[in-house]
Amino acid sequence: MVASSASAASALLGVFFCHHSLDNCCRIGARLVEIERIEAAKRQRKRHGHTGQIICRLAARWRLQDKHAPERHSQQAARHKAESGRFPPLYQRVALQRARHAEADGGHQKNNDIEYCRVLFPHIIIFAAQRYEKKAFFSYLCKKISIKMEVDAKKIMRDFAVADVRTMGSYALLEMEGDLPEGIKPGQFVQIEIPDSKTTYLRRPISICNVENGRLWLLVRDAGAGTHKLVEAKRGDRFNIIMPLGHGFTVPAEKGARILLAGGGVGVAPLLYLAKTLHDGGICPDIVLGARSKADVLLREEFERYGRLHISTDDGSDGTPGLITANPVWDKEFDAVAVCGPTPMMRAVASICAGREIPCEVSLENMMACGLGACLCCVEDTKDKGNVCVCTDGPVFNINKLKWQL
Fold first, then answer.
1. CB-CB contact of 297 with 313 (8 Å)
2. What is the rounded CA–CA span in Å between residue 27 and residue 78?
3. Same CATH topology for 155-245 and 259-363?
4. What percent of the chain has pLDDT over 90?
5. Distance (Å, whole) CA 357 – CA 350
6. Regarding predicted confidence, which is higher, 96 or 192?
7. SS3 for 192?
8. Fewer beta carbons below 10 Å: N end or C end of the chain?
9. What is the C-alpha separation between 332 and 285, in angstroms, rounded?
10. Residue ranges per domain, the chain?
11. Which CATH architecture has domain 259-363?
């Protein structure tokens, strides 16, 4: 739990410094201190029936603006380190650092706000991440993030209610109702919080499957503790979602464009919204889906609404037997190809496209944590930019930019 908390803390730290002014960071840090005082008082009241002097003691610890506090805390920190050989408690470390900056600045702090903020805020975040219940910890921080993101990047963080659930074996199609933002593009994804879970601290990245009749569609595969909670969701359940994230597929402007969409497994999810977008723009795409058997073909009826559907199954129970790269659809000529699915499948399709000089985009499914480019969990090496975050520069990439051996 501590390790995952620290990872989340690092991600949050990057998000805040990217999206907030120093004043906001300091205010949030102060707010976390205030929450600590309140929570400590509640714990004291629950154990002993009264708060006693705990609020006063905590306030004294955190009263960094007291002109005598830096010197006093510096002395305490020095004694603690000399006696125990370990770092002093959080508040003493911060006070010691602040005292050093104040001394270097002739007693004035205004020119050292940047360094002080960078010293204080990481420790506050990690401290809070390890101490608080997940929901209480995020309740304040998420509001701050969402306000800035709505202004700067047209991204939102809101609660959505499950309006309908359709189960398909180990998959579930969730239709979510809520206030959807404008400008959602095919290939983008969401970060969804798993509520009331102590084992899934981080949000889960889920591709946007479709946007229809004011509802957000999410296709989820039961692959772990977090997605298992989503697959078991019922009507009326509410989930907090950050969206839309990442860069999506290129949508051709020409109505007569010949487009092929190739997907396999849960990778068919972002292709449905792309097929719908192309159809609405006057393009009838060819769609080839790969699956193990007929029972594993996902969203067949939905895809048939928006294009010409071709199926390939491993056992030959539906469509063409074998891999999608052996499907007769490849006898046609295409202006562009969009792919999402298992990496070996995407590489095989990309190899065909490279040989025929067909523009091809792939949607990568690298492991993600924050979804905002802060944690660096999803880095992919590219030809033009070197290592980039799939969650921000992708997840959709042109194959010519990837260092794939095709």
1. yes
2. 28
3. no
4. 47
5. 10
6. 192
7. strand
8. N
9. 12
10. 2-149, 155-245, 259-363
11. 3-Layer(aba) Sandwich (3.40)
Q: Enter the tokens of residue 341.
A: 């699915």
How many other C-beta atoms lie within 10 A of the C-beta of residue 193? Answer: 22
Q: For residue range 224-267, list pLDDT tens digits in order.
A: 888 999 999 999 999 999 999 999 999 998 888 999 999 998 89
For the record, the structure tokens of 168 come out as 């398909």
How far is 283 from 203, CA to CA, in rounded Å?
35
Q: How far apart are CA 30 and CA 8, in angstroms?
A: 20
pLDDT tens readout for residues 268-287: 999 999 999 999 999 999 99
3 state SS of 66: coil
Contact indicator for 25, 17 with CB cutoff of 8 Å: yes
CB 240 within 8 A of CB 193: yes
**Separation CA 287–CA 381 (nearest Å):** 29
Closest CA to 297 of 275, 276, 318: 318
Q: What is the pLDDT of residue 144?
A: 42
Helix (H, G, I), strand (E, B) or coil at 202: coil
Residue in the structure block whose two tokens are 């009826």: 301
pTM above threshold 0.90:
no
Instruction: Spell out the residues 6+ positions from residue 405 whose beta carbon is closer than 8 angstroms to its own.
Output: none
Burial of 239 (0-12, 13-18, 19+ CB in 10 A): buried
Residue 376 has pLDDT above 50, yes or no: yes
What is the distance in angstroms between the CA of the first residue and the CA of the last residue of the chain? 41
Q: What angle do CA 232, 236, 240 make, to 5 degrees?
A: 80
Predicted confidence band at 217 (pLDDT cuts at 50, 70, 90)?
very high
What pLDDT was estimated at residue 11? Answer: 43
Helices (H), 259-308: 269-280, 300-306
Average pLDDT in the 13-42 region? 50
Residue 124 identity (one-letter amino acid): I
Q: How would you class 236 by CB atoms within 10 Å of its CB: exposed for 0-12, middle for 13-18, buried for 19 or more?
A: exposed
User: Any idea which architecture 155-245 has in CATH?
Assistant: Beta Barrel (2.40)
How far is residue 213's CA from residue 161's CA, in Å, rounded to a whole number? Answer: 15
